[in-house]
Structures are given as C-alpha cells and as structure tokens.
Amino acid sequence: MNNFEFKNPTKIIFGKDSIKKLENEIPENAKILLLYGGGSIKKNGIYNQVKAALGTATVIEFGGIPANPEYAVLLEALEIIKTENINFLLAVGGGSVIDGTKFLSAAALYEGLTPWDILADNIRTEKGLPFGTVLTLPATGSEMNSGAVITRAETKEKLSMGGPGLFPEFSILDPQVITSIPERQLANGLADAFTHVLEQYMTYPSGALLQDRFAESIMQTIIEVAPKVLKDPTDYQAASNFMWSCTMALNGLIQKGVPTDWAVHAIGHELTALFGIDHARTLAVIAPSHYKYNFEAKKDKLAQYGERVWNITEGNTDDIAYLAIEKTVAFFHALGINTKLSDYTKDFEGTAETISQRFTDRGWLGLGEHQSLSPDKVEKIVKMAY
Ligand code: NZQ
Ligand code: ZN
C-alpha cells in the first residue's frame, strides 16, 4: 500500500426529506447565489423545497447552467457574484451545476486576469468562496469531492480543475430526488459511478486489500441496484443505495494508497468536447478498448474483478480477465448505453488523431497508472473504439 493523507471536510446530510435541513447549514449573514441548471428543479418540486428551507435568507438566483457547464455562462454568474458581493454559493443540481459552482468558487477569489487560466494552467485552488450543494442527480461524486470539469464551446475544450479549497461545506442527499430523473440520466449516473471505481481499481495489484474490497463492494452494489433503479426510481431502498454508491465512488476514499488510472476520463472528456456525447457514455465507449489495449498490464486486476465482482470461476487469468471486459460491456448495454463511437456519430474519422494531437500539445505524454500511455497509444485506443 502506498503512503497517503486523507481529509474530506464535506458534511453529508443524507436521507428522506433532508432538503429541509438546509436551513441549519446556511451561515449567518450569508448573501447567497442559488445556482441551478435548465429548470428541472422547478418541475419536480426541489426548487420549492429549497426556497422553503432558505426562509428569509438573502438569495439571488442564477439558472441556466447547461449540462457540461459552459464557461461563457459561468462568467455571467461570476459577474453577479462580484457586483452583488455574494459570500455563499448554493448549487442545486447534478454534477454540471455543482462543477460550475466550484469553478465560480475558485474564480471569485482568483486574482489573475482570465479565470480560464485556472483550467488551462491547472492552477490548484487552496481557498474558494464557500458553497454547499443540494444534489439532484447521483452520478459524479462532485457533491463530496474537490474536482470540477468545465467546458468551453468556443474552443471545444473540456478541462478539469480542483484543489483542497473546493470541497462543498455540506451536501444534502435526498434519494427521493431520483424519481423525476429521465431513464437516460439514471443510466448515465450508474455508468459514470461504476467507471469511477474502475479508474481507481483497474491498475495492478498493490497490496491494498481493504481499498480493493471497498471498490468491489461499490461495483457489486451498483450492479445489484441498477435494474431496480431503472425499473422503478421510486424504490427508495434502491435509490438510497444508488445515491450513496455514487458518492462513495468518488469522494477520495477508495483511491487512497493505491495507483489510479483516469485515462478513460481524459479521453472521454475529448469525446464530449468534440461531439457533445454524454459524459458517462464516452466512458462506456473508451473503457472496453482501453482495457483490451492495456490487457497485459491490467490483467491481474481484471481477473480479480472478474472473479470477485462477476463471479467468474472457470478459466485461467487471461480467460477470466477477458471475460470480465465482456461482462463490463454487457453491463453498459443492459443500462441501454452503446459502447462504440460510431453509435453516437457518423463523423468519427480523424477523431483518434485529433485527440492524440491535443494530448501532445498539452504535454499529456504519459497517462495512466504507469504514466506510460503516450499520445500514440491513445490514438490506437480511440481507433479501437470506433
Ligand atoms: O439542467 P437541469 O434542468 O437540472 O437537468 C439536468 C440535466 O439535463 C437533469 N437532471 C438533474 N437532476 C434531475 C434532472 N432531471 C430531472 N430530475 C432531476 N432530479 O439531468 C441532466 C444532466 O445533468 P448533469 O448535471 O449534467 O449530469 P451529471 O450529474 O452526470 O454531471 C455531468 C457533468 O459532471 C462532470 C461531467 O464531465 C459533466 O460535465 N463530472 C464531474 C466530476 C466531478 N466533479 O468529480 C467527475 C465526473 O467524472 C464527471 O467528469
Ligand atoms: Zn465520470
């Protein structure tokens, strides 16, 4: 096991009807900017619950943060934060609204000229404007981590940012919110969280027995509840396990002391930036090719995953590892998620070269747990995913 430090300061308030507890969490004298997305919260009652809990607090609202939070839209919110002297941000939404809020938290205190530099130059945020979240879509884990991913349509870029200053002060997780989520987004949430675990697990054995079993138990839970969640989002038992699994998949715990990969996400973000494909679906496109291409380096963990998560008992290490990849593809398909780039766009020729060139230009010359996945290898993986 590798050395590690672990601190996660986010307070989680989990459970049925927990949105009303928001009133206890807002700091005194807060001047709040309430941030939300395309308006789903106004149809499903979450907005009304939030407003009721905020009572007489001073609140300004900013709606319209799109899926894959857009830099240009966020700059409008930044202007409001500055002119209105906002001192607390409240994100009510999924990963996109929460990530957008993290960007604003960082940008509000950033002293440089262009906030995009935080992303382009990978500037860590040590201190941000404080914010809390009311999660409406289990998927990203953004409600309990300090990372964010921001999109810029102008340049077709999608880049990550983060730092210890970007943990939410609190996150309210009421599993009942999933009842209004469209099936496509439920499937996305299940696939995204599942792949978050894979990124922190599918590397090489490192003697971290507990972390491996944390990871396996999250994947087993997602596999178990996925059909229930899709069939009946009002099934509270399934919803609550789904929601907590998504948070636990990316709140830092399972990555401590182990090597991590994250190449699937790095490549996937490019597919969203280039084609607008839903984040989770880009992962389902890239992960199978990535694991096949890196089979030799990853086969011990692939086989462990095959045995423990998919209960494969027959065959040697290679057989089990290979079958485990097939099981993963079948799982994505069972969620209704296609796993080839050509399922999403007819315009895929040249994509592999474009992504490889972008990685070269950014100096991303060695991704993955061995920092050895060079742009030419990325190109091959993307081609395999056509
Ligand atoms: O915009 P609204 O109207 O709210 O509708 C949203 C949106 O259309 C809708 N929705 C959310 N909650 C709902 C609901 N509809 C009905 N009922 C509800 N309760 O769902 C749609 C998708 O929302 P979005 O927030 O975009 O989804 P998700 O949570 O999957 O977030 C995706 C973004 O998070 C980033 C992704 O790259 C992407 O930009 N990620 C963030 C991570 C992080 N911060 O740690 C890690 C992830 O790997 C990921 O990269
Ligand atoms: Zn993800």
TrEMBL record:
Residues 189-386 form the Fe-containing alcohol dehydrogenase-like C-terminal domain. One of its GO terms (cellular component) is cytosol. Residues 9-175 form the Alcohol dehydrogenase iron-type/glycerol dehydrogenase GldA domain. Keywords: Oxidoreductase. PROSITE patterns: ADH_IRON_1, ADH_IRON_2. The keyword Membrane does not apply. InterPro entries: ADH_Fe/GldA, ADH_Fe_C, ADH_Fe_CS, BDH-like. Gene3D superfamilies: 3.40.50.1970, Dehydroquinate synthase-like - alpha domain. GO terms for molecular function: alcohol dehydrogenase (NADP+) activity; butanol dehydrogenase (NAD+) activity; metal ion binding; methylglyoxal reductase (NADPH) (acetol producing) activity. Belongs to the iron-containing alcohol dehydrogenase family. PANTHER family: ALCOHOL DEHYDROGENASE YQHD. This is Iron-containing alcohol dehydrogenase. It comes from Bizionia algoritergicola. The lineage of its organism: Bacteria, Pseudomonadati, Bacteroidota, Flavobacteriia, Flavobacteriales.
